[in-house]
Amino acid sequence: DRYQRRVRDIQMKLMQSSTLILLYLAVYSYAGLLDYSCVGHEDGNYLYPGDCTKYIACVAQTYAYEMTCPLSTEGTQLHYVQDSGPNPADSYCDYPALAGCAVNNNE
What we know:
This protein is an alpha+beta fold. It has 2 helices and 5 strands, in the order αβββββα. It has helices spanning about 1-30, 95-100, and strands spanning about 45, 55-60, 65-70, 80, 95. A 3-stranded antiparallel beta sheet has the order 1-2-3. Strands 4-5 form a two-stranded antiparallel sheet. It is globular, with a radius of gyration of 13 Å. The termini are far apart. Mean pLDDT is about 80; it is low at about 25-30.
C-alpha cells in the first residue's frame, strides 16, 4: 500500500536522523546512556531487551542510547522490527502485528 510505504519511509528518515543526533550526543554528553554494552556490536539499532516499543542505538561501538518507537498516525504505539537492524538505513518500527516482536513487558 502506498500510504504504508510512505509511513515507513518517514520512519526510516526519523531513525536515520536520530542516529546522527545520537552521534552528536555521544561526543558532547553522557546523558541517556544505558547499562547495555555496545562493545562488539556494530553501530546501529538493536531490540531493547524486554520491550518491543523501544530499541537501543549503539554509537561508536561504545555508547548505548534508549530510543522509543513513534506512534502511528492513528496513535498506535509502534514496535521495533528486530530483523530490520542494525543498519539505521534499514531498521524501522512498524505496527505490532507486523513487527513480529514477541517480547514486551508493557502489554
